[in-house]
Structure formats: structure tokens, C-alpha cells
Amino acid sequence: MTSSIVLRYLRNDLRRNRGVAIALLVVMMLSAFLMASGAMVLERVSGSVDRMFATAKPPHFLQMHQGDFDEGALESFAAEHPEIDAWLIEEMIGFDGQAIGWQRPATGETGDLSESLIDNLFVTQNDDFDFLLETGGDGVPRPRDGEVYVPVAYELQFGIEVGDRLTVRTSGGSEGQAEQFEVVGFVRDAQMASSMSSATRFLVSDQDFERLSSGGGGTPEIIVEYRLSDTAQLSDFQQAYESDEALPKNGQAVTEVMIRLINVFSGGLTAIAFMFASLMLIAIALLNVRFVIRSTLEDEIHEIGAMRAIGLPTRTISGLYLSRYGVMALVACAAGGILAMFAVPLLTRDIQTNFAAAPTTWVSYAAPILALAVLFGLIVGICANVLRAVRRVDVVGALIHGSTVSERVTVGRARRSARRAARRVGKREHNRPSALTGVSSGKLGLRLAWLDLRAERRQWLLVPAVFFIASVLLILPTNLLTTFESPRFVTYMGAPESDLRIDVQFSTADDETGGSNSAGEARQRLLTKLESDPRIGEVVSYAGMLFEARGEEGWEALRVEVGDYSDSTLEFAQGQPPADGEIALSLLNAEEFGVVPGDTLTVRQDGEEQEARVSGVYQDITSGGYTAKMQGNVDQETIAAQAQRWVVYASLANAEDNGDDAAVVIAREYDALEPAASVIPMRHYVQQTLAYITDALRGVAVVTLAIAIGAAALIATLFLRLQVSKDRQKMGVLSALGFSLREIAAQLQLKALLTVAAGVLLGTLFAATAGEALVGSILGPSMGIARLSFIPNPWIVYLAYPLLLIGAGTVGTLILTRRLRRADRSEWLR
Predict the structure, then answer these.
(1) Where is the domain boundary, 374, 393, 412?
(2) If residue 584 lies in a helix (H) or strand (E), which one and from where to where?
(3) pLDDT at position 431, please?
(4) 557 phi and psi, to 5 degrees?
(5) Domain shared by 299 and 338, yes or no
(6) Which keywords describe this protein according to UniProt (predicted)?
(7) What are the angstrom distances between the C-alpha of 138 and each of 51, 128, 359, 697?
(8) Which residues contact 697 (CB under 8 A, 6 or more apart)?
């Protein structure tokens, strides 16, 4: 067969079935666009993180610490471990966001960073590794005195510009001394780029850092950082560090693997969601391609029989039809890929701003091409599988009976159908009347539609299948978004439900008043104020303490919050809250130590060992997911003396009346009253911690909403158009029997409405039940979540979305049936 014949056939077929071809092409193109976009975004995110890591050289292992430490012990440890390639102690000074303001001299605009709830750490540039990088390239900036480089995240969040003046209030109070800086640029931070990081770093000169440290009002902190000559030894190295009691450990320990995972996850969630949406659309496209091919073979069976009769081999005939869908798939993949090339820079703009401009390599081209090739192969493979029916076409049956099977098979089917009909008639004569007996004339059309739907249920299964997939595609991203945005999500962050979170840690004031006791005094002052405040309801506090637990390879650091958990709202995936002598572990810690509720874990503090029964396992995505809870009286002198930090949770007395605004006002008031504490509205804490994730999910939810509604309406119209074409003779018979066009159209509308509603209902139920397990299996292992329970907005996902999908299917049906009423009925029986 020459290419000219194929092209002529394709051209004529497109003219004759333009609507069907366009509908299929659009669905395929959307699938290709999402698949290529997901692959390209994932490659760009990975490339951005890799490039930033290659230049910034973040540590392979780091230990954050607040309080005094023995530098000699660190030097001895480094000398004993030859696998250390380089190490350093980075000194930092942290200030609350309310103490940092900015001013734009050109316009007089002012503002502060009080809306940021993470720690603001001022540092100097390192000499060997862990560099802060300029946003305009890979340069390692070194500010002069009076200059500051601001985190790029604050450039986006607060609109800070180069040339603005940054003011830092020292000495703790609003009337204290203020240090002035000029913003000369912005920096990327490989270690603290993600919003899931609890801190961010500002870059100043050595002299300015000394002025900030000596000015008071800040919180000193260090990071002990190590780079190893062989990262395969990282696990053993971390074990050795944590088992050395002389080394500083009052803070979170983090590995390069955790840093990379958090960065890639927060940026790559868009890619994962897009590829999931693409798979859903591919399923819709393949279902429709299968249906269209079968309908085409039935409609053109006489032409196929004629080609078989003149001697054309089945491979040639199949190739003729396969070329049609192969060309459509090729055009769709090419168009989808081109659209993805324009969309990906917009989708990755924030990623490349926060991390780095990803280099263009052969993988940049191979990733989308491979994704599109897989999609093209799936479509062509399904088409080729369906077109095998051409081999079974009998020439006589095709030309005489218009059937895809032989005359013998046709006659056999007819005889079996006749026998089944006779048995049904016999049963009705003896047992029950006809299905149409007693039906009033006004309901006869509806009854016929129902009987027709039952008889042709295999063909009509396509519609509920498509709307089932569309419902899942629509609801899952929205459910995940509302879950992450809900105030109740704090139970996934190792915290009880509350309105305020107060952190009291070591500060510069501790040096003057006796170490960590001053943190306990600040906590006690806060409790006294909170308990006498009529706006505050329940208040509970927990002491952050450092224990060690015995694991398979020895003693490991274990950070524990000690307090009263008897009435805690913290949710447990397994077991229950700890009682006296018990401990509850986060999911990742339970996996780390290989224990389940009921097992015993050996812990020690200051050399004193004790056996603690594991009471339960809870979900936590903070502190790397490695936390623990123990029952204890925080007012005991021993606990108060050993506590390295305090966490206080407070609920508003009339939360329903006061709302979130009241929590913000109270948080700012207490934050100003007690400089040693960081007071945060819990809703804002969750929002800022998960900002990158929720921003990505919000964009995905909007995209999938448009695609799911559009694809569902398009496919419903396509299916009904093909169904009407197949049922012309049946509608002609109904018309000859006296049914009006309005009644015939009503039958079609009823069948469409029933199948659409069934698909939407099943899809909604699946998304609300099995959808949780599906999403949890993808996100859970990387976030420390064992069981993800959606916190949906029922008005949106269980009312608005189903109505939108049913409305989309109904609108497509109405458009098609309106054309049906203008059809020439005389042609239906020809």
C-alpha cells in the first residue's frame, strides 16, 4: 500500500468523522502534555537541586545545638575519625521576625518579618563548604560591613528588593539598639531552602556578626557540620557521633539524604501530581480509543468485507486503520510536548529561584521524549490489539449480514438468542407479565430507556468508567490540599490540636541568669500570664529533653517531649498515649529501633538506664520525623532542671467566636511580652511549614479541575454521538411506532444521566476511601506518615464537584440531542 493511498484515506476519514477525531486528539494531547510536563518538571527539580548541591557543598552530616559545648571534644572526635574530609562549627545568632524590619528609601515603604514564623539566623560565609549562593548565578558572596544578603524566600514572600534597608533590633526590646544593613542581594541556601525547614539564614560580614552577637536580644546557636570522604560510611559516622556523650546534641541531627529528600519532595510534588493526572487521562483516552475502533469496525464492516473479498491481506487492512490512530497519537504527542516546553518554565520558576537554574543535559531532552514514547506506544499497542478483530472477519458474514463474525457464528448466536427469548416468554406467561405491562404512556419512553440500557450495558460501561476516573482525578488533589491546609493537620506534625504554640529555648539571657533555668523561668512567667488571661482556655506544657536509646548498633540520641499526655488530642496510628513508665515513638523512630506497641525500649539519661514500654506509635513530619513522647510531671525539679527547651500549647477560651484573627493578635501580644519565647498561631505554623507543598497542590488542583471537567464533557459528547450513529435504525423504528423526537431524545438523556451519575458516585466513594490508601502509599514513607486520613471540604468534594461533573455530562447530552431534534427521520430506516 503506497503512502499516497494512506494519506488519501486519512484525509477522507477526518473529513467524515471530524468531531470524533478532534475529541480523541484533544484527550490524547492533554495526556501527552501532562506526561511530558511531569517528566520535565521532575528532571528540572532534580537538576536544580543537584546543581545547587554541587556548588554549595552542603554537609553530609550536621548537628544543630543550642547552649554551651566543648570545642575540644569536637576536635578530638575529628582527629579520631579519618573518614572526615572537612568539618566546621558555624556560629549563628537568631532573631524573631518582629525584631527585623525593612524600609525602602525610594518610596518610604516599610514592613517587618513578623509574618514569618521560622527562625531567622544571621551567619557569616563559610570558607570550605556549606556556602550560601547568589541568586544571579553560582557565586559565593562575601558582604562588606553594613551589607546583608537576604534569603531568596523573603524576596518572594515580602517583596524585599536590593537597596532596601534592613533593621535588626538588638537588646531584646522595641526600644533597644537597632543595627542597620543595606540589602545588596539574595542568597540560595542548599541546607534550608524548603519551607519544611524550621529556619533560614541571612549573610553578613564577620564584624557585623560580632555586633549582632554582642548587642543582645538574639539566640546563639551552632551547627557542627561534616563532609565525609565516603558517604557510604554516613550511617556508621552518625552512630559514632550520637554515641559520644561529650559532643553537643541539643538540636536536630540532619543528613544530606534528608536535606535532598525534603528539597526534591517539596519541589517535585507538582511533577508527581501531573504524572498521576496524565495516567488518569491516558486511561480515559485508551478506553475511548478502544470504543471508537470497535464502533468504526462495525460501521465499516461492508468496506472491510469488500477489501477482504478483493484479496487484501488482514495485515494491510489493519495497518490502514492503525495508521489513522498512529498519526493521531503522533500529532497529539508532538503538540503536547510543544505545549509542555512553554509551560514547564512557568511551573518551575519558583523552584529554580529557590534552588538553582538546572543545567541542560541530554537527560533534559531524553526525559520528556521517553515519557511521550511510552504514551505513544501504549496508544498504538491498544489500537493494534483491538484491530485483531479484523483477522476474524468473515467475507460472507461481512458482505451479507454486516457482521464481524462468520455466518455460522451469527446463526448460532441467533439460535441461542431465540431459545433464551422463548424461555423468557414462557416464564412470563406462567410467572410474571411483560416488562412493559402496566406502564403508562407517559412513562413508556423512560421504561424503554432503562431496558435498553440493561441490554447494552457493555457498551454503556464506557461512560461511568470515564466519569469514575474524572471524579478521582478531580477529588484526590483537592482532598490532599484541604488536608494539608486544615488546622487538624497538626496531629500529623507530632502536636495536639491547639490555637497557639509557644517555644521557649536557650537565649542570650541564659548566660546571665544561670543556663537553661532561665528558659524554665520564662516558661513559668508565660504560664502565669496565660492562666490569668480570660481569653485563654486550656494550657499544657512539655519539656524537651535529650535521652539516648539502645538500638541495634548501640546508643543513639533520642529527643523526647515529657509532659502530661492523659488528655492529649494527639492521634496515634497504633497504640495509645504514654502512661507512667511508658514511651510513645514517632513512626520513623519506631522503624529505626524496630519496636511496636507492647515492646520494651531501653533508654538512658546522664548514664542512668531505664526500661520504657512502648505505648504507641504516632505520625510526625517535624524534626525529620524522629521524635518521642514520655509521661511525666514537668513541675518536678529534676525535669525542670534537665529540660533543654519547652513547648507550650494553648487553646482560646472561645475559639469559635474569636476565630483565627484572635489567635494572631494574642500571639503577637505574648511574643512582645516575653522575648525569650516564640509564640505562633498554630494555623500559621502549619501553613508556613507546608507552604511549598500547598502552593504546588493548589496549582495542580486548578489544572486537574479544568482538565477533568473538559475531558468528561468531551468524552460524553463523543460517546453519545457514536451511539446515536449506531442506533439510527432503532430510533427509526421508535419513530415509526409513533414516538416523537422529544421522547426519543429524552430516552437518550436518561441513559446518559444514569451512567454519568453512577460513574461520579463510584468515583467519589473510591476517592474518599481507597484514595486515602493510594495517596498515603505514595507520600507516607517520605513524610513519616503511616496512615493518611483526608480532611476534606465536604461542600466542595461531595457536592460541588459531583454536580460539576454531572452538569458537564448533561450539557454535552443536551447539545447532542438538540441536534437530534432537527434530524431527518426518513434516513434512519435506510
Answers:
(1) 393
(2) strand 582-586
(3) 52
(4) -65, 140
(5) yes
(6) Cell membrane, Membrane, Transmembrane, Transmembrane helix
(7) 9, 15, 12, 29
(8) 269, 273, 477, 480, 481, 484
* pLDDT tens, position by position, 768-820: 888 878 777 766 655 556 667 788 888 998 899 999 999 988 888 887 777 76
Q: Is residue 418 included in any domain, yes or no?
A: no
pLDDT of residue 228: 93
SS3 content of the chain, % helix, strand, coil (to 5): 55, 20, 25
pLDDT band at 508 (very low <50, low <70, confident <90, very high): very low
Into how many domains does the chain fold?
A: 4
Contacts of 225 (CB under 8 A, 6+ apart): 59, 61, 62, 87, 88, 89, 90, 129, 130
552 CB-near residues (< 8 Å, 6+ apart): 594
The C-alpha cell 514564623 sits at: 117
Q: Which amino acid is at 151?
A: P
Say how many C-beta atoms besides its own lie within 10 A of residue 411's C-beta.
12
- Cell numbers found for residue 486: 486544615
Residues 529 and 634 in one domain: yes
Distances from the Cα of 296 to the Cαs of 34, 291, 321, 377, 453, in angstroms? 28, 9, 9, 21, 21
CB 531 within 8 A of CB 523: no
Residue 87: φ, ψ to 5° = -150, 160
Is residue 437 in some structural domain?
A: no
* Any domain includes 756: yes
Average pLDDT (537-554) is: 84
DSSP reduced 3-state for 544: strand
> Could you identify the residue written with the cell 499544657?
540
| Coil/strand/helix, residue 124 | coil
- On whether both 708 and 738 belong to a single domain, the answer is yes
The verdict on residue 303 lying in a domain is yes
pLDDT digits (tens, 9 = 90+) for 170-180: 875 445 578 89
84 or 97, which is more confident? 84
Please indicate, yes or no, whether residues 49 and 67 belong to a single structural domain of this protein. no
* 397 secondary structure, DSSP code: I
Whole-angstrom Cα distance, residue 620 to residue 192? 19
Q: Cα–Cα distance between 431 and 23 in angstroms, integer?
A: 48
Residues 112, 220, single domain; the answer is yes
State the chain's mean pLDDT as an integer: 79
Q: Are residues 580 and 649 in the same domain?
A: yes
Q: Are residues 658 and 796 in the same domain?
A: no
List residues bridging with 186 in a β-sheet.
150
Same domain (yes/no): 696, 728: yes
Tell me which residue has cell 513519616.
784
The residues, any chain, with a CB within 8 Å of residue 512's CB and separated by 6 or more, are: 518
- Worst-scoring range by mean pLDDT, 13-17, 410-414, 451-455? 410-414
Tell which of 659, 675, 691 closes a domain: 675
pLDDT at residue 626, as a whole number: 79
CB-CB neighbours of 348 under 10 Å? 25
Q: Residue 372 is part of which domain span?
A: 1-57+267-393
